Each structure stands twice: as structure tokens, then as C-alpha cells.
Amino acid sequence: PSTVHTMATVSASLVAPAQRIAARRQARPTAARGARTPLRVAAAASIAEIKGTGDLPAVKLTSADGCTATAYLFGGVVTSFTKPDGREVLYVRPDAVFDKSKPISGGLPHCWPQFGPGDIQVHGFARNVDWELTKKTEGSNPSIEMTLLPSDYTKKMWDNDFKVTQTITLGDGKLKATLKVCNTGDEAFTFTGSFHTYFAADIDEVAVTGLKGCKSLDRLKDEAGTVSGALTMSGPVDSCYYDVPSVINLAVGGGNSVAVESQGGWSDAVVWTPWTDMEACYKEFVCVENAACKEPVSVAAGGEWEASTILA
Fold first, then answer.
1. pTM of the entire structure?
2. 292 has pLDDT over 90
3. First-to-final CA distance of the chain
4. Alpha helices, DSSP H, located in the chain
5. Cα separation of 259 and 158, whole Å?
6. Residue 257: enclosing H or E segment and its boundaries?
7. Are strands 231-232 and 77-82 parallel, antiparallel or unpaired?
8. 306 contacts: CB under 8 Å, gap ≥ 6
9. What's the average model confidence in pLDDT over 136-155?
10. pLDDT in tens, 175-195
11. Do 62 and 70 form a contact (C-beta atoms < 8 A)?
């Protein structure tokens, strides 16, 4: 898209993905999800601080090759990543709210410092608090840094000193999200976590490959196993996969696919579909997550841990 010139243009570009999907579904009930549109003419790369849905502070990045991404400071969550052909990679659920009453449901949210249920709120607090925009790096592949520090709210749940940053870099047809955890306290702490990524997909055409031979845990059945081939969806799935390779491939339907690459400390993966527990939208997305969930990560006092997810 061309560089943003007016707030009206910005507002139009920020319609929540679920709303855009609903409009497309009415117009083309049988159309494949993620259908390609004509190739965009790339504009100058840019970073724009904007008001998103619900007037929440957000940042829109545009790379020189025509990719775009939108990140909200509430939750530090990326809600949109479009490829140069205009295809939306991520998915925001139709029940998502943008009023800070709960985490934004969709996109690329954090589960930190706890994955799943446990001693604190489910999936931790990082997706349910305000992050600060601490750095903007202009260029053909623009990037931003968002930072989370302890507060009275976090201390009541998890009494540790930390600095967490998320760096979002866009370009070359890819989105890279890097999570860095620094222990600023005097004692070691442990955590589990993931990027709980929602992908726009036709659930009937989803296939996850690259996990063959990995040990797994079906959390619905509490049953361990070993992956024998491609994963397809024919019912509810909530499974963890351990010591996974660096690249997982996800077929999303319509001949489209996404490569989900991990770097650094992500050693595990999670695949989730709620199936008919979310009757209104389960056919439109699947979650494939880079994670550190098999064993807690320990960060020594003064130490740090870093992991990246790259979507291509």
C-alpha cells in the first residue's frame, strides 16, 4: 500500500481481520481462505504510530517489499501481518475485544511467564498489560521494540524483577518476532512460554509437517506419543511437541502455506484448534506455536534468554 497520509486511510487499514473475513464470507461464501489478490506495488517503508481498534495505541510497519504488520502496545501483540500479495497471515477471532478488559484474542500474543494453566493466570500476564514502545528503526526492513517491566499488578502474581523486550522486524516477505527476557533481580527465576500464534486457515485443509519423529503430549487425553507424519485436523487438538526442528511448515488452504521458523530458546511447539468449542470461527484458524513448555527455563540473576519466531 502507499504511505499513509490521512487518519481515514489508517483507520480503514486497521479493520480487525475477523471483520474483514466476515465481509469476505458474506460476499463469497465458498471462497478459499487466504485467496491471493493482485500483487501490490511496494511503497516506501514506514513506521507509523496510530490509533487502532478501540482507539488503542498501535504501530503499523510497512516494508519496502510491500509487507505490512500492525502491533498493539496492549499485550505487545501483533494482530496483522500481510504478505506483498495482500494475503493476511494472522487471524483475530470475532470475539476479540479491544478495551483492555481481557487479552486481544488472536494474532501473535505472548504466553509469558507461564504457558497454560498454573499458579498465575492462564498463559501469564504479558498479553494482558501495556507494553512501552521503546525503539523504532526505520529502513527498508523496519523494526520496533516494545518493552515490559514489572508493576504492582505483575508483582502480586509473580514477584520477580525482569525486563522483557519484543522486537518486531518486517521485510523480505517475512515477519520476525524476538522475545528477550532479562533477569534484573538478585535471584534466578524460571518461566515457561510461547508465541500463541493464530494463523488464518481453512481448518479442513490444514496440514502441519516437519514434526515427524518428535515426542508429543496430547493434553486433552493426557497421552504421550510420537509423531508419525503430517498433522491434520478432524476434531479438537491441544498437543505439545518436544525438541522440534527449527522449521515447521503449515498448509493453510487455497494452495498457501507458512513456514514457521524458530531460533534461540524455543525448543518445543504446540498445535491447537478448539473445534466446535468455538463454533463461530473454528473453521477459520489454527494455532501453531513456538514454545518452551517441556521444562521451565531458568534465567540466572543478571542473565538473559532470547528466542525468535520467523513467519515466511
1. 0.87
2. yes
3. 19
4. 7-13, 17-27, 152-157
5. 34
6. strand 256-264
7. unpaired
8. 178, 179, 180, 181, 264, 265
9. 98
10. 999 999 999 999 999 999 999
11. no
SS3 20: helix
Residue 60: name the closest of 198, 179, 200, 168 by CA.
168
Distance, in Å, from the CA atom of 101 to the CA atom of 99, rounded to the nearest integer, reads 5
Confidence of residue 10 (pLDDT cuts 50, 70, 90): very low
- Assess contact for 96 and 18: CB atoms under 8 A: yes
Query: Concatenated DSSP letters for 98-156?
Result: -SSSS---BSB-EE-S--SSSSSSTT-SGGGSB-EEEEEE-SSS-EEEEEE---HHHHH
For the four alpha carbons of 272, 274, 275 and 281, in that order, the dihedral sign comes to: negative
Query: What does the buried/exposed string (b/e) look like for 244-266 if buried means 16 or more CB atoms within 10 Å of the residue's CB?
Result: beeebbbbbbbebbbebbbebbb
In this structure, what DSSP letter does residue 87 have? -
Q: How many residues does the chain have?
A: 312
Cell 483507520 found at: 11
**Among candidates 25, 295, 301, 264, which has minimal Cα distance to 187?**
301
- Return d(Cα 273, Cα 236) in angstroms, integer: 6
Binned at pLDDT 50, 70 and 90, residue 289 comes out as very high
Burial of 193 (0-12, 13-18, 19+ CB in 10 A): buried
What are residue 258's DSSP bridge partners? 250
CA–CA dist 45, 62 (Å, integer): 5
